[in-house]
Amino acid sequence: MENILEIKGLNKAYDGFALKDVTFSLPKGYIMGFVGENGSGKTTTIRSILNMANIDSGKISVFGLDSITDTIAIKEKLGVVFDSLYLADHLNAKQIEKQLKPFYKDWDSKEFADRLKSFGLPDNKRVGEFSKGMKMKLMITIALSHKADFMILDEPTSGLDPVARDELLDILAEYIEDENRSVLFSTHITSDVERIADYVTILHDGQVWFTGTKDELSEKYVILRGAEEDISSALREKCIGFHNYRNGFDALLSTEYLDEVSDELVTEKANIDEILVYVAKEDRYERHNENDKV
Amino acid sequence: MNDIMKMIRFDLISVSRLTVPYVAIFAAVCIIAALFSLPIGIFCVVSFVMIIAPVQGINNSSCKRLYGMLPVNRSAVIKALFIEITFTLFAGELLAFLCFLIVRNSSLYKMLPEKVMHFAEDLTKMPEKEYTMLYMLAAAAFAFITIILCYAQMRSEIKSMEAAIRELIIIIAVFAAAVSFISVMIYNEKLDALKNILLPTTSAGKWLLIAILNAVTLAAAYLFCAVTVKKASDKEL
Amino acid sequence: MKIVIKNKSELPIYEQIEQQIKAQILEGKVAEDEQLPSIRQLARDLKISVITTTRVYNDLAEEGFIISVTGKGYFVAPSNNELLRERMLCEMEEGFEKAVLNGRNAGLSDDEIIAALKNFMEE
């Protein structure tokens, strides 16, 4: 399967934060949800793909082209949607088209006009007055108008109302109907990813915690619940984000240890949100232990 | 269209809505004032700085992410920026010159109320020598502003906006001190050699100095631009 | 074709879709040789991932409910004996279910219901 995006061994350190050996890939024709807490490194990874951040080491290729040396060729065919608009607020959509058109070989003015219409965006109103959802749709319109084959969305749904979020999913589902296209979709609202994404990459503390198909993820982990006295200490060691309270405990468990689970305990499916929460808890727990040692 | 032209076009569309009415009104006021021979040279200079400031503000604030996604070289973005600054200020200089020319040749001032009319009349009756001096001062002012803005642009691209402003304040202070010192010395007839260079007595000498000032400005803008391209092209957006 | 996905169901989405498509084929609501929406169309319509719909079609093709024609898409398999048999069994079970339910509602014991069935078959 041909990969539209390939990141290998990406390292990038800032003061107090670092991406460590980030490696994952996204095949052509699929949507990947890129999830993790705020500050886990999603935006830095995206900035690296766009050659906006200078990476310390590693290799990123998009459409098989190098993200640094071929950045211009990549951006011809790459659509980007940020959480806020990157254009001058006082312009209207018509003027913005005039601005952007010369930069793209494949700009399609008809597509731009048609999309504005179908998205219900006025072309004579200042874009600064657009609602958040409208701004998001304008950025998607731009991506579609220059025939982008790969769309990167950085937190597109933060601050969007449920209706606009649903519209976005509709748009992406339609976009991906063409099997030559892919979408990388960063978000911390995982319910958006839950349904529509084919692949999921979970970033935690600058590292890839999981990458693979969404089905693999949901088959790999379960939530374990029960009374604390019913869990063996060996199994407890294998739990992720173990959380005990007055009447029992809950934790995330890899399905490879399922046969060690005694009958008194119950397991249930874990969704991405729950997985993220347990991963974050595990981290705090570890830090807590380290502090105790000191 | 090459990348630099695309960027200039892009920036022009961005600023046009904000500045076109502003520039048009301002140029009209300048020319009307000139028709009545009112002293507007200084007004021109001040206003031009006021126009260039918001334009520069737009260039710096909103576009970093845009440059991250546009299929365009960083160097083209930077070059376009410097070309815009230089051309805007040359346009300002030309406008100032045009105003002087109109002041000199218009006789509409006779329609003004008496008190103002005398004042305007004095200006039109100024000896040729002093008049060329005005051109020279305007050219010097625009050269100074262009160089300062190009420098500030360079520093804000390479380092940060804050660093650029800090350095700018220091430079302007030092420059003001130097100018005052030289003026005092010349006034006291201590630096006659320098005076002959800075304030040529002949008209031709003054025009030559104006040409040199503009050439120096262009060279400085080019130099700052080249340094910025070299140092800032790889910088993170 | 009618597909309704319950997000809160314990069944995974792909299984829900498979069951519904199978049921509609067995009930004859989707005619044999009828073309199904493409994998990507179905994903778009249901707003679910392409991998999920791919899995649905692969599973259904493996079980013989649909066939994949390269370059054309997926079609409902022509009803073969196996499939028909399954459909019949399905209908029979439904009939039994109804009969047993009615019998119990009438206050018959399980033995009495079986006896009634035997009687019915001997006639």
From TrEMBL, chain A:
Kindly give the SMART domains that the UniProt entry links to this protein.
Answer: AAA
**UniProt-listed Gene3D superfamilies:** P-loop containing nucleotide triphosphate hydrolases
CDD domains in the record, alphabetically? ABC_DR_subfamily_A
Q: Which InterPro entries match?
A: AAA+_ATPase, ABC_transporter-like_ATP-bd, ABC_Transporter_VariousFunc, P-loop_NTPase
For this UniProt record, give its keywords in alphabetical order, as a comma-separated list. Answer: ATP-binding, Nucleotide-binding, Transport
Q: Which GO terms describe its molecular function?
A: ATP binding; ATP hydrolysis activity
Question: Transmembrane region positions?
Answer: none
Report the superkingdom from the record. Bacteria
Q: Where is the ABC transporter domain?
A: 2-230
Name of this protein: ABC transporter ATP-binding protein
From TrEMBL, chain B:
Does the record carry Membrane as a key word?
A: yes
Tell me the domain of life: Bacteria
Transmembrane feature ranges: 12-34, 40-59, 80-103, 133-152, 164-187, 207-229
Q: Which UniProt keywords apply?
A: Membrane, Transmembrane, Transmembrane helix
Q: What is this protein called?
A: ABC-2 transporter permease
Originating species: Ruminococcus flavefaciens 007c
Automatic annotation (TrEMBL), chain C:
Q: Which domain of life is it from?
A: Bacteria
Ranges where the HTH gntR-type domain occurs? 11-79
Q: Please give the InterPro entries that the UniProt record associates with this protein.
A: Tscrpt_reg_HTH_GntR, WH-like_DNA-bd_sf, WH_DNA-bd_sf
Q: Does the keyword Oxidoreductase apply?
A: no
UniProt keyword Transcription, yes or no: yes
Q: Which terms are listed as keywords in the entry?
A: DNA-binding, Transcription, Transcription regulation
- What Pfam families does the annotation carry? GntR (PF00392)
Q: Name one GO molecular function term.
A: DNA-binding transcription factor activity
Q: What is this protein called?
A: GntR family transcriptional regulator
Q: Which organism is it from?
A: Ruminococcus flavefaciens 007c
